[in-house]
Amino acid sequence: MKIDLGPVTRIEGHLNVHTTVENGIVTDAQCVSEMFRGFEVILQGRDPLDAQQITQRICGVCPYAHAIASSYAQENAYKLQVPPNGRIMHNLIQGANHLYDYLLQFYQLSALDFVDVTAILQYTGKDQDLIKVKQWVTAELDRNKEFPAAPFLPRLSGQYIKDKDINIGALKHYIEAMEIQKKANQAAAIFGGKFPHSTGIFPGGCTQNARIDHIAAYQSLIREVKHFIHDKYIPDIVAVATAFPEYWKIGASKGGFLSYGLLPLSSALNSKRLLAPGVMFDGQVSPVDLNQITQDTKFSKYSSSSNLHLKDSATIPAPHKNGAYSWTKAPRYGGRMVEVGPAARIMIDYHQGNNPVVTQLVNHFAGLAKITPANLNSVLGRHLSRAINAAVIADFLLEETERLDHGGPTMADIVIPNSCEGFGMTEASRGGLLHYIRVENHKIAKYECVVPTTWNGSPRDDNGQPGAMESALIGTKVQTPEEQIESVRIVHSFDPCIACAVH
Fold first, then answer.
1. Residues 355, 274: contact at Cβ < 8 Å?
2. Where would a tag sit more exposed on the chain, N or C end, judged by fewer CB atoms within 10 A?
């Protein structure tokens, strides 16, 4: 039986998933990115300093990550010496964006896969947030009995949390999370200029000054976000894990893991990072070698050659290419598939013992759930890893504000060579983000982005290896093949962003 899951909702961009189900098991899956954008083509011939602005328009959810990766690439190309304040401000902006995105991903994009929204119909209290949710759900049911509207309905067939109080509490947090996300974005905009699409992020630092009033305002907002993370977000993750323990073993990808590391601890080139970089196969972590990264196009809708390094990759659309089924390329590391994202970040850092807080939290929650760290490669593991990321980042951001030098320089002097090239690597909330820039005659001659969902949502490579998300779907047992709530939960756990993944 062949079933299409698309259009997959509660994600960024346009995704379909072709599945084949036999005897209640998904035996094949194809992730289909359904659009072409051409940002790398748009950038050719532009002023290099346009790059950190234009690439932010790739995504309205994680624009700062693109600005940071582009800035890192240009800093590498121009050999800039970034002042400490500049690097700290980059961290403050990007870190706040991570906190916003983790809360958005869980509450607005994934929680409704597990929370029974109909429990709100039994609510008789006076809480205004819950009354609002009850009105929304009632209106959706009344609007169209057969095809109720998003976001709460329709629900897929399957089991949801049974405890009424947990369901109602989670729905209240759904509303509260929107306000907390706003505060995280306000914090990022203090130094970034605005959200989305920062005007303050530049190669070499930030255009904002390190003013005490800005620092105090930022700290106040991040403290509110931190309290929500610890008091509500993490307990809600634990509640879902308690109700669905089987999802510690559902949705595991079948390859390695890659992280470029997140939030550098100094302005030095190749500085140690809050979360360590690395590539992991079979439990063994090695340093990242950019020369190992290539992109295949056999099943992608491009006529560009396959198995090329980033410096040589091309983006030539071929919408009618025979056998191709996706607008996403298939990046591989040494010819092997890897998963990127929050679970990859946490597992790679944990296996290196880089951050003691990560080690402590992983051990704590593994003991609580009676799992091993390897079980982070799962639906629940990805959700828990986001919460661990959030807790670690929130503490770090408050510490980082204390390291700003009030009134000190925040920007390097930028001199763009006639010809140069550079790589910029960071972690968007969804995973490893790589930008490459080549400048000739003071103009962009080549630009290439390899983003998280290019890895996770890739089609088969030239050797027929599925991408991370495809591999996680294959082998899944589903109760209702026509709907596949199990498969949808797997897809949502990756938090795919197709707008980023396509070229």
1. yes
2. N
Token reading at 291: 């020369």
| CA-based end-to-end distance of the chain | 32
User: How far is Cα 471 from Cα 140, in angstroms, rounded to an integer?
Assistant: 35
**Crossing angle between the packed helical segments 234-243 and 164-192, to the nearest 10 degrees:** 140
What is the per-residue pLDDT for 365?
98
Tell me whether the omega of the peptide bond preceding residue 151 falls within 30 degrees of 0, making it cis: yes
- Whole-number Å distance between alpha carbons of 311 and 295: 11
Task: Convert the pLDDT of each residue in 113-145 to its tens digit.
Answer: 999 999 999 999 999 999 999 998 888 887 766
Interacting residues of 370 by C-beta distance below 8 A, sequence separation 6+: none
The helix/strand/coil state of 331 is strand
Domain-wise residue ranges, the chain: 2-116+160-318+327-501
CATH 1.20.120.530 fits 2-116+160-318+327-501, yes or no: no
Instruction: Decide: 424 and 74 in contact? Cβ < 8 Å.
Output: yes
pLDDT of residue 136: 87
Cβ pair 311, 446 in contact under 8 A: yes
Tokens for 344, please give them.
Answer: 């990859």
Compute CA distances 388 → 229, 327, 421, 430, whole Å.
Answer: 10, 32, 35, 14
**CA dist., res. 106 & res. 86, Å (int):** 31
To which H or E segment does residue 281 belong? strand 278-281
* Helix extents (H) in 296-447: 342-352, 356-369, 379-401
DSSP 16: E
Query: For 73-113, how does the pLDDT look when each residue is reduced to its tens digit (9 = 90+)?
Result: 999 999 999 999 999 999 999 999 999 999 999 999 999 99
**Cross-strand pairs, 91:** none
Task: Determine whether 178 is exposed, middle or buried from the number of CB atoms within 10 Å of its CB (0-12, 13-18, 19+).
Answer: middle
Taking the C-alpha atoms of residue 135 and residue 129, their distance in angstroms, rounded to an integer, is 10
Please tell me the pTM assigned to this model. 0.97
